[in-house]
Amino acid sequence: MKILDWYILKRYLFTFLMMLLLFIPIGITVNLAEKIGKILENKVPFGEVALYYLNFTIYFANLLFPIFLFLSVIWFTSKLANNTEIVAFLSSGVSFSRFLRPYIIGATIVSLFAMILGFYLAPIASQGFNEFTYKYLKSARHQDPGQNIFRQINDTDLIFVSSFDKIQKTGYNFTLEHIEGNELTYKMFANSIRYSEADSTYKLFNYYKRTITDNGDIIEAQRQLDTVLPFDLEDLMPVNYIAETKPYSELVEFIDKEKARGSSNIGRYEIVKYKKWSLPVSVFILTIIAVAVSSIKRRGGMGFNLAFGITTAMVYVFFDKVFGVLAEQSDFSPIIAAWLPNLVFGILAIFLLYNAKR
To answer: Quick check: pTM over 0.85?
Structure first.
């Protein structure tokens, strides 16, 4: 690798790191100023607060690092252009494609880091971040109960609750149907079902069971029944962020399992899976756009380039969020929702790169 490559690569990585180190403390300060009342009110131990902000750092770095990278590349490349360094590089016989090579090497390094972060570290941080949020920072009135939950938990059993309260771990109007072949063998009812963490059992209130046999139906009824049932608590009410907390291999297995159960949240889970791949690719696209725009010396200096960068970053985030919500709440394809922003900005990158070479 030549001096030019090392010079640009070091600036690429160093500026990106400085951008992260600059904005993450600002994000922590703003979040702490907003949440300090809840933290003090709930008397949260200092160790848990420190762990929360460590998870907060990883969680939001994973979400926003392409934008930080984009702005950092525009920043240092604009400085190179204003100092006429890029003109000197190109005047020495270096082609624009050759000039772009250290940027692509830097993007490859950052992309590999993004994959490690998204596949392994971010899920751990997401779980800690969300658990702390729901435990200490969200009031009970903001934790709405699930409504009309119907799930196939295995090949033979289906469950239904009209509503489920995550705080009380209680479901209402519970039904379990056991089907073998195409025939219903028994059906259980209860006015309410409550999960007991102490022994991992369920309490059924006003329990009623009807078993269908060749000799007639067998009826069983009790005011209260403590029993073990063939499903987990998350089967009654999986948390919205559960896909974010799973490493990639576990996420794939989880989605396959949820598809077999007929879950209505498949779009939400699949968008998380596809973004683990689309996010590293966006590093290359945003890098090329940043270089193509900021490598030209302009009369307005860095101001125009930074304004363009911030506007482009906001549009990218807008596309990403809008299509993500569409995939979660409609039949819109999750794979299209995850990759469409990259496709649109990839076309923009090719156009801008072509003009920059000219």
So the answer is: no
